[in-house]
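Troubleshooting log. The previous structure file for this entry was overwritten by mistake, so regenerating from the original sequence record. Sequence copied from the archived sheet and checked twice against the printout by T.R.
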Amino acid sequence: MGLLELFILAIGLSMDAFAVSICKGLALPKINLKSAGIVGLWFGAFQALMPLIGYLLGVNFRSYIVSVDHWIAFVLLALIGANMIKEALSDDDEEEESEIRNLKRGPEEGTIGVYSLDSCSISPTGQVALSREDNGIKEILGFKTMFLLAVATSIDALAMGVTFAFLNVNIIPAISFIGVVTFTCSAIGVKIGNVFGLKYKSKAEIAGGVILILLGCKILIEHLGIL
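Regenerated output below.
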């Protein structure tokens, strides 16, 4: 697998993380480099880790199914891509965006719970406590929330790691490249979500799905000797 193919594959795999990052950007009361970096690191790290796990699993069975490895690669990529497109077409972005914005605004002016944009409160000791805005950011980017999202958006990459084993891909450079691309796309997605809302979320998921399906077709066609 060449560098261009790997780059296209990385873009396709990162689209789920990109779409979720857009939602994160929409939910965050303010965006800075730290917030974007946290989201990017979570998604980038898991997008690199999952293919490695899949590769280690797949390499143990490669010798038994080498005769059909191209079909397995094609089926996995096609299923992953089709699922991404299906989810994108079933999303109701306008309703989702409205719900998130209402959550940020809160039921009454000045009371937004953990998403409040109010000024800092004063502690009994006279020190300035964390503002509700800062609490909101911590809640949105908390360990449990980000861990679950990172795992959910990288399951596809686990299957891709199995495919890497069948294709004899040099795994360390591959997962490093995928991690960096996902980090970049996720950080950009946070900013896009904060500025444009969910306008590009479904489009990104559809594009990612199409890319993975086309790559699967290319692998199959090459192994069948058509190209």
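Residues 107-130 have pLDDT under 50 and may be disordered. Archived copy saved in two places this time.
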